[in-house]
Design brief:
Layout (H helix, E strand, L loop, with lengths): L5 E6 L3 H17 L4 E6 L3 H4 L16 H8 L5 E5 L11 E6 L7 E5 L13 E3 L3 H10 L4 E3 L5 H9 L5 E5 H6 L8 E2 L14 E6 L3 H7 L5 H17 L7 E8 L3 E9 L6 E9 L3 H28 L3
Helix pairs in contact: 8-9
Length: 315
């Protein structure tokens, strides 16, 4: 950018994305009062196509590509992503400069009548756009009718209120950031549903050579969250999965320097669930992610993922 006393933050335009970008903006303003920070809204492919299931329109950079292009073109100085949307391959000349403190990664159920997943009526209609959520919920409630559901949270809640759906599944982190945590009927435990890779965290992406911005965002780094997200992303990279493949994972730093990680690969109908764990040292985060991925692949995950890619036309 021309004016080095002004820093432009790129963000998607959704209510949640802007809450996240404004939080980053406020943190940076507190520490850098001499710099003006502004937010530039950029519409991504995933924002433009709202009437087609995400799994049908591909999975590489749906919510990040246009933001990254703006960064490369120096139209913005940094971009704020939901970490789960960021592909494992970052474009040349860009890097993830910071991972902020992770919010609760759990998924939650919001239901009519405030009932739990196990107490939903037989054949109830449950809305989700996520193949990961779909496959894991069908593993425990194969009777449910899964309805593809996209749109912002208000749109999803309206379909619940109108009686079109009996329940929806969403990320708890988003509800918390929107101030709607009390909407959850149930926090789904990890033994039933593992979250998306990096769910709950924010990634700040920057240009590799931009030392000024790199220094500005350093104070936002949460190192435990960074190790967790890097371990999960290493697993995802090995599995060659995207955000629309039913892979769940959760890594957690155990004080002071250990890391435990659990992951799952599921068939689309939930009839086959392959789950495994690894434990190790924080410094071995990448090795651990690859090791866990290899365990899943060796136990039948490779066949499941190949079948899913063929079914979705992603080969």
């Amino acid at each position: 950018m021309e004016n080095r006393n002004k820093i432009v933050i790129g963000s998607r335009g959704s209510k949640l994305a802007l809450i996240q970008a404004n939080w980053v903006k406020s943190q940076l303003e507190k520490a850098n009062k001499e710099i003006e920070f502004i937010i530039e809204i950029i519409k991504t492919t995933g924002d433009k196509i709202t009437d087609v299931p995400l799994s049908k329109i591909g999975n590489i950079g749906l919510f990040t590509k246009e933001l990254e292009n703006a960064l490369l073109d120096k139209k913005v100085d940094l971009v704020v992503h939901s970490a789960k949307d960021v592909p494992t391959e970052i474009p040349d000349h860009l890097e993830i400069g910071a991972v902020t403190k992770r919010e609760d990664p759990h998924d939650v159920l919001i239901s009519r009548g405030n009932v739990s997943l196990k107490d939903l009526p037989k054949d109830a209609k449950l809305g989700t756009s996520s193949l990961r959520r779909r496959s894991q919920v069908l593993a425990v409630r194969p009777d449910l009718e899964i309805v593809d559901l996209r749109g912002n949270l208000d749109t999803r809640l309206n379909k619940l209120d109108s009686g079109e759906l009996d329940a929806i599944l969403v990320a708890r982190a988003g509800l918390i950031r929107l101030g709607l945590a009390d909407k959850a009927s149930e926090i789904i435990p990890y033994d039933i549903m593992l979250p998306a890779v990096s769910q709950g965290a924010l990634c700040i992406e920057i240009r590799e050579i931009d030392k000024k911005v790199k220094n500005l965002i350093r104070s936002l780094i949460d190192y435990n969250s960074m190790f967790e997200i890097k371990a999960e992303r290493a697993l995802l990279a090995r599995l060659q999965g995207g955000c629309q493949i039913p892979i769940g994972a959760h890594a957690e730093v155990i004080y002071p320097s250990n890391l435990k990680m659990e992951a799952v690969v599921c068939s689309l109908d939930g009839t086959t669930v392959i789950r495994d764990t690894v434990d190790g040292k924080v410094d071995d985060f990448s090795t651990m992610g690859i090791e866990l991925a290899n365990k899943l692949l060796g136990r039948g995950g490779y066949k499941i993922l190949e079948d899913i890619r063929a079914n979705l036309g992603q080969e």
